[in-house]
From TrEMBL:
UniProt-listed InterPro entries: AgrD
NCBIfam families (alphabetical): quorum_AgrD (TIGR04223)
PROSITE patterns the record matches: PROKAR_LIPOPROTEIN (PS51257)
Keyword check for Signal: yes
Keywords recorded for this protein, A-Z: Signal
Residues spanning the signal sequence: 1-24
Protein name: Cyclic lactone autoinducer peptide
Species per Swiss-Prot/TrEMBL record: Pelotomaculum isophthalicicum JI
Amino acid sequence: MKHKLFAFAVTVLLLLASITSASACGIGSYQPEVPESLRR
């Protein structure tokens, strides 16, 4: 019983970690347009 509970907790935590990292990558890849006055 203890092994099943541990496996379930690991599965849930890995799922949560993958969701969090995927959302962080999605936010980090956003690059807004740079205005002409700031371009060199």
